Amino acid sequence: MPTSAVPSHPVLSTGEARALEARLFGGDERKEWRAMLQAGRSVADAALRDILEAGGFPEAGRILVLAGKGNNAGDALIAAREILDRFPRAEADVLFAFGPRKLGPLAARARRGLSEARRGQVHEIRADALPRCYDLCLDGIFGLQYRGPLPPEASAAIEASAGCGIRLRAAVDLPSGWDEPGAFCADFTYATGSVKAPLVGCAHAGRPRYLDLGFFRGGEGEGKGAGTGDRVILPSVLGPLSGLRPAASDKRSQGHLMVVGGSSGLPGAVLMATLSALRSGAGLVTAFVPESLAAVFASRAPEAMWVGLPETPGGGLAQRALERVMGGAERATALAIGPGLGRDPETLSLAMEIVKASPVPLVIDADALQPDIVRAGAAPRILTPHAGEFARIAFGAGLRELCGALPCVVIQKGPVTRVSDGGAVYHSFFGGPVLSRGGSGDLLSGLVGGLLAQTPGDPLGTACRGAAWHGMAADQLARAHGQTAVQALQWLDFLGPALRESAACPAT
């Protein structure tokens, strides 16, 4: 599948990002100012969305802006103005790390606009006079032009803010100081216009968000040599799912997923995977589970077809179930195997035979992620490992190397989920700590399995859509209920809202 088929933008080196902006703006301050306004408004929108996970921004909230000299300071000041415009009782303190006289022309213009428009709500303050608490801190000291080490003035501003109680710490473009000791420690970093390579894997960045400002419209920045081989997935990747289906559709035209898993020791995982598959849009879902579980699960999810299979003495799937499973696979368009499977040697032997003989594309998850199983057979496959499972099957190889050696598509789960087929690595900046609970991976495998059943010829696109949809629904869940007092199954109810949100995103 060509790179351009997955809606995504390249991760740029800092030099490539500077060159892109030079081509776009050509030194024209009017164009730069329009881009700064757009960036500031986008940062404000994103921060107000993300603080919902911590209870939302209060009517009389307090903002701290850390401003440097350049465009990042302007972005942060414009973002603060946008928030104050929406919350007339809120206030903002601005700490100019190098003093207001050192501001560049556009940042100075943003400062004037903020102080004149929100007179009485804005206070310029020194590092030694910060109040003890804020709802939001915007770090705009350094960005793309940063060269270490951190100057003492910047270190003092960052240290002063670190001593405050702040509900959400947000960096504009890159956290000031990046990965140096004493760098700004963000909860979120908002990459404006393009994602710069230092953000990927940055220990101080918190959760990265990409704010698409239209820099890549018309193919700008996508030419030969652009990017590092890493790409960021766009919300429009869900476009094929959010539109209208053909009027003549029926259940047989929307794919048939077969799920194989479950054991007496881990009964819930396969149920969660099946419930997720039922929400994926697949027309038919058949679940093959130990016979002792089938009747109970059928009462919980009657929309699926539950097939009870012979069990081992330990409650796993027995080897003699192979014929029934493979008979069912002939009627399916995709197969998902692994959730709740357990480690019974006979069950794992069965799993290897299923993978080896599968006539349809596979999703392999959980206990089925064993070195011999993932390498069996020739059917296309998507693997969904977390860090421990990845280490078990990769034998020290990196993501691209593993994908190329098998071959396969891998969804490598983590704080930033990464997807690859051995070519580019696609990063999903959606989702967060709300997914750090048992069952989240089972929900992902069922979702990806259901999507693969609908598009069996597109495993890479399926994997990217599944990773993004999984994360976008998690974001919606966290904004509605917070990160803590939720259950994994509540995520199911936010798949629809995530699709509707993605439908409003431009396909760039």
Which structural traits does this protein have?
508 residues; 18% strand; single chain; UDP-N-acetylmuramoyl-L-alanine:D-glutamate ligase; alpha/beta; 2 domains; Rossmann fold; elongated; 19 strands; 37% helix
- The overall number of domains is 2
Q: Into which percentage range does the β-strand content fall?
A: 15-25%
User: So what's the overall shape?
Assistant: elongated
What is the first-to-last residue Cα distance?
18 Å
Sequence stretches where pLDDT stays below 50 over 5 or more residues? none
What's this entry about, in short?
This protein has 508 residues and is α/β, with parallel strands linked by helices. Helix content is 37%, strand content 18%. It contains 16 helices and 19 strands.
Give a written overview of the molecule.
There is one protein chain. By secondary structure, the chain is α/β, with parallel strands linked by helices. The chain folds into two domains: 3-233, 3-Layer(aba) Sandwich (Rossmann fold); 255-493, UDP-N-acetylmuramoyl-L-alanine:D-glutamate ligase. The chain has helices at 14-25, 29-50, 71-86, 105-117, 152-162, 239-242, 267-278, 291-300, 322-329, 345-357, 371-374, 387-394, 399-405, 440-454, 459-481, 495-503; strands spanning 8-12, 62-67, 91-96, 122-124, 133-140, 165-172, 188-192, 195-196, 207-211, 230-233, 256-260, 284-290, 305-309, 334-337, 362-364, 381-383, 409-412, 417-420, 425-428. The protein is elongated and about 80 Å long. It is built from 16 helices and 19 strands. 37% of the residues lie in helices and 18% in strands. It has a twelve-stranded mixed beta sheet, with helices on both faces. The longest helix is centred in the C-terminal third of the chain and has 23 residues, at 459-481. The model has no long low-confidence stretch (mean pLDDT 94). The two termini are 18 Å apart. 53% of the residues are buried. Helix 3 (71-86) runs parallel beside helix 4 (105-117), helix 7 crosses helix 14 (440-454) and helix 15 packs across helix 16.
